[in-house]
Specification:
The chain is of the alpha+beta class. Helices cover 53% and strands 17% of the residues. The protein is built from five helices and seven strands. Strands 5-7-6 form a three-stranded antiparallel β-sheet. Strand 6 and strand 7 (104-108) form a beta hairpin. Mean pLDDT is 83; it is low at 138-144. Residues 70-119 form the Helix-turn-helix domain. Pfam families: HTH_17.
Length: 144
C-alpha cells in the first residue's frame, strides 16, 4: 500500500504533548519554514498537518505513509481496518464501488475514504441518539 516505507513516530513525552496541545488550541494556521523560506500550506495539507500535530498533542503514536490512488482489496481492507473478505462482500453488494483490472478488483482511495466517513457519521448519530435516550431517562428519574 505504501509507496515509501511508512514512518512511525512514537508518542511525545507528556510534557511535550501538553505544550503542543496548548499551542494548537483554537489555531489552524500552520506556517512552514523550509530553509528559512516561509510557506503557507494549502488547506488540504494544512488540515493534514494540524491533524498530525493534534494526534501528537494527545500523546498518540503516529504513522505516516503514502497511499496509491487505486488500491487492491487487501490494501483497501487494511486501510479501512476491516477484513479482506468483508470488503469483498461489500463490493459484491455494491456498497463500495470497484473497478476491475483484468480479473483483479481495484478500489479508489476516495471510495474507501468516503465509506469511512460514512461510518464515522453513523457512529456519531448512534451515539447522539443513545445520549438523547439516556438524557430523557435521566431527566425522568431526577423528576421523581
Amino acid at each position: 500500500m505504501a509507496l515509501i516505507a511508512p514512518r512511525v513516530a512514537p508518542a511525545l513525552p507528556p510534557e511535550d504533548a501538553l505544550a503542543l496541545q496548548r499551542a494548537l488550541d483554537g489555531g489552524t494556521d500552520i506556517t512552514v519554514f523550509v530553509d528559512g523560506t516561509v510557506h503557507r500550506l494549502p488547506p488540504q495539507a494544512r488540515d493534514t498537518v494540524v491533524d498530525l500535530l493534534a494526534r501528537f498533542s494527545r500523546g498518540e503514536a503516529v504513522t505516516v505513509s503514502s497511499v496509491e490512488e487505486m488500491l487492491t482489496t487487501s490494501q483497501a481492507a487494511e486501510l479501512a481496518g476491516i477484513s479482506h473478505t468483508y470488503l469483498r462482500n461489500m463490493t459484491d453488494r455494491g456498497e463500495i464501488p470497484v473497478e476491475y483490472r483484468g480479473t483483479h478488483r481495484r478500489i479508489r482511495l476516495a471510495a474507501i475514504m468516503g465509506w469511512l466517513e460514512g461510518q464515522k457519521k453513523k457512529r456519531a448519530a448512534a451515539e447522539a441518539a443513545g445520549e438523547a435516550a439516556d438524557g430523557g431517562t435521566s431527566a425522568g428519574e431526577s423528576g421523581q
